[in-house]
Structures are given as C-alpha cells and as structure tokens.
Structures
1.
Amino acid sequence: NAGVTQTPKFQVLKTGQSMTLQCAQDMNHNSMYWYRQDPGMGLRLIYYSASEGTTDKGEVPNGYNVSRLNKREFSLRLESAAPSQTSVYFCASSDGWHKESNQPQHFGDGTRLSIL
Amino acid sequence: KNQVEQSPQSLIILEGKNCTLQCNYTVSPFSNLRWYKQDTGRGPVSLTIMTFSENTKSNGRYTATLDADTKQSSLHITASQLSDSASYICVVPGSNYQLIWGAGTKLIIKP
C-alpha cells in the first residue's frame, strides 16, 4: 500500500547543478501536484497536472519544469539550482482535479533539498 | 487577497487535555475547507473536508467546525495523545481553484 512515493529523500546540490525529483502514485489518480514547503509558510504549488497529458503552472513555477510521464509518474526538474530553491518538496495526487471534486490530496513524504 | 490564517502558531498541552485550533480565511467564493495533519518529516494527511453546508464534522477524537458567515473554522482535539503531536494545517481552494495553505499550528503533547 505505497500511495505516493518520492525519490530521493535527501539531496545536496551545488549552485548551478541540475536534478530531477521523481514521484509515482499507485492509486490510479488523475491529478498530480508538486509543492514546496518553507519554514513558517504554507505549502506553495509549483506545478500541477490535472490529467495525464496536461501540465500547468502554479504559484511559484520559476526555475522549475515538470513532466507527466504517464498516469502514475510526475517528475520535477531543476535546470540550474539556486540557493533560494533550498526547501522540502512534496508530490501529491488526487482522484480528480479539486475544481470538480472534494477528494483529498494524498502526499508523499517529501524530498529535502539543499542548494549550496 | 485570498488568505488563510491560523492561530496559535504553536501550542503545548499535557496528554489527556483538550485543545482547539483556529483558522480564519478570506477566500471567496467558498467551496470547501480542509484540515490536514503533518507529522514531523512526513507529508500532510487529510483529516477532514467540510463543504459549505456542513458546520460540524468528526473524525474520531477530531471535530472540525465551520462558520461560513464569519469565515472561521476550528479543529477541536479531545483527550489528546502523544501521537497527536504534529502540525495541523487549514486549507481552502482559492478563486482559481488552487489550494491556499495556512502556515499551520504546531501542537506538542507532553506526557
């Protein structure tokens, strides 16, 4: 009963390096999301995919790109990491885009990313 | 501006005691309000989702209330346990339907 799985759990990068955060869900959910969580702030949406084949920008998309590889997988890429991107990144999925649904979002346990 | 504000920022209570966490929102139009629990080092987990027509909803020892007129919600925890130590986050969909997350209340239960 895995739910939402994120890899890696921890990562340290140098400024300018690139990396991809992986996310997979096994609940057959249509919608997937990437958030970042910073101390003292609410979660902020980076990108989302309301359904397979579509992606859209959230509140803080600058410096990131995403790929909805298939219904299960949604990856987040940092092309040129900056210290301001030091954060905890969460992937989530839900059964339907919450515009039309009251279903909750299910979260992975996050990737803790430090940019030096 | 759509906002979700929670109080207190942090709270320490003794095991077995009750507590109430507050959430005020300015989001309009309103569709639903969600409460999540986030254990340290883990992702948030949904506790409850309340729609406009619901003013009370229980999930075990957790009871959420909603007053859509005053745009306030509360989460009441009864007979607290050590496992209740966590951050509790209030969430409301914004006008563009993206979720607006509060900063959370950090609750510490002491034995």
Note: Chain B is about 0% helix and 55% strand.
2.
Amino acid sequence: SQQGEEDPQALSIQEGENATMNCSYKTSINNLQWYRQNSGRGLVHLILIRSNEREKHSGRLRVTLDTSKKSSSLLITASRAADTASYFCATAPTGFQKLVFGTGTRLLVSP
Amino acid sequence: DAGVIQSPRHEVTEMGQEVTLRCKPISGHNSLFWYRQTMMRGLELLIYFNNNVPIDDSGMPEDRFSAKMPNASFSTLKIQPSEPRDSAVYFCASRDQDRGMNTEAFFGQGTRLTVV
C-alpha cells in the first residue's frame, strides 16, 4: 500500500499549547498536503508544500518537509478548542495525479 | 460555487441490493476522485478520473464496484450487490488539474452507507 502513516494516532492538549503531528510516506512526491476533518464532515484543505520546499507557514500552521526522510510535520501553534478534529497528510506521488492519504491524527484541544 | 455535492448523505440498504452514490464536482474541475473511509482502513482511494476518463481504478475492491463519469459535471459509484462490509463513508473530491500538479482537492460532505 502507498498509504502513509501519521503519528501520534491521537493527541490531547490544552488550549494555548502547540500541537505537532508527523507524517511519513513511501514514494517520491510532487507535493504533500495537509487536510482537516471535523467529525462527520468532509475533508478541508489546509496547506500544500511542494517537494522542493522545506518549510511553509499559513497563519498558526507551520509545515515542514524532509524528502530525504520521506517525512513531514504539521505544527499548530496556540491551539484552540475549535482546532479539535482529525488531521490527515496526503501525498501526490511523482508522475501520478492522485492523492494518497495517511492514517490521520485525532487532535483534542480542551478548553 | 456550492462545492462538491454528493447524494444521498445517508443510505441504509439491505444486503444484496444495488446502491448508487452520486457526485457533482466543482464546475471547471477536471479531476474527480472517489474515496472510502472506514475506521479499520482509513481513507482509501477507489478510483479517479481525469477529463471524464478513468485513470486508475486499482483501488476498487471488487467487481461489485463500478464507477462512471458520463460528463464533466456528474459521476456515480455503484455497488451491486451490496454487502455489510461495504458499510463506510464514501467521499467524492474534485480538483482543477489544469492548474498543475500542485493543487488541492475539494471534498464533498460524503455519503454514509450502511448495509444491513
């Protein structure tokens, strides 16, 4: 399977703390994307990082990419209760148009 | 734009019945994906289309599953006959492939299928 893996599977923090999620994948990629899913809803795109980029920021989100290790991390700073959701990484394998999703991290932010 | 529209939102059917899930992608998007989500297997890519043509259906679990995209604004995923293990949330997503490889996908709200 090309499916990537994320860790931790679940993360529980307090509001104001930072949350870090990691993603590992198996193939060479064009880009890596992070998505968020609220319970019972569809996935929403958060941020995309290209294979030739190492770090990217968007608001409270910071994404890093290490193609030599085939890994990425998503950092959410100053978390809020509204950040409670599942977070998925998705890779766009080189030469393919598809997106392959990881196993996801369930984040719980307590007030 | 209303986003990717899937119907029905919920479907409960008896084992052996035919099930048809529908998807309307975002206007102008030329790539369409069908995913299945379960607790055990996560998000699995079943099939994707580019310009209405199926590109990769290697994720379709069995011959009981079929997908079509007769035009740029409509796709169906059909299961015949359905089985209890097909119970899952099925998502449709679309993307504007003409903008290049580095574009995001937009997801519908999903169809929750329960086969009893």
Note: Chain A is about 0% helix and 60% strand.
